[in-house]
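Schema walk-through. Below, the input block comes first and the output block second. Nothing else is stored per chain. Lengths vary across the set, and this one has 228 residues.
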Amino acid sequence: MNKLEDKLANPVWYSLNETHNKFLINYDGVQFYKPNVCVFGAFFDATKTAKALNAYSKIAERFFLVSENETPIIDTNTIVLERKIDGCQMVLENFIDIKITESIVLLTEKHIDEVYDLIWLVMPGFYQKKGFEMGKYFGIFKDNKLVAITGQRMQTDHFIEVSGVVTHPDYTRKGLAKQLITHTTKAIIKENKLPILHTNKGNAAIPLYKKLGYKITRDMNWWLYSKK
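--- output ---
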């Protein structure tokens, strides 16, 4: 397995070791993001996860461990597994450059509240306002209203994850997401990094991702926990 493949197999871990090291909280070899940025964690040794989850639960109400095929060990006296989200990783295989007809804007800190509100409207639950600091966010405005976005989340020296693909319900089926994903993918390529993304298996958006040149390459599962 080469260096890139190592990182793709454990993207949270290597993001925290490299580009996102400033967000790292380490509990004896189990690594988490600061919870006001992102509630993801990663590990290599499952025997260490129970103690680490107990510690992280003191500063985060609900949180994930992300793994390709490893099963975390938990202390069932203190931690509850809410659900396991069966996900997959997709990697850009062939860039397909579609025509961009919308005005796509690089979002800044003045847009943080709008980004947060739109994501929570469409995908409520886990996005944190400081998640804006994980990478670049791009948006499309209609009538001075932010109606569609894409963002960048996990990052290493070799790849950047496309994430936060959200369109306001009143503006779906207009090709906005397709153009934003293409724009964000192109921005990642310009940085000489590999564009990747993650989604749950069976997501209706997977055919779109495939049409834009992405290929499913491996499982990537999210174990959602909370404090008992």
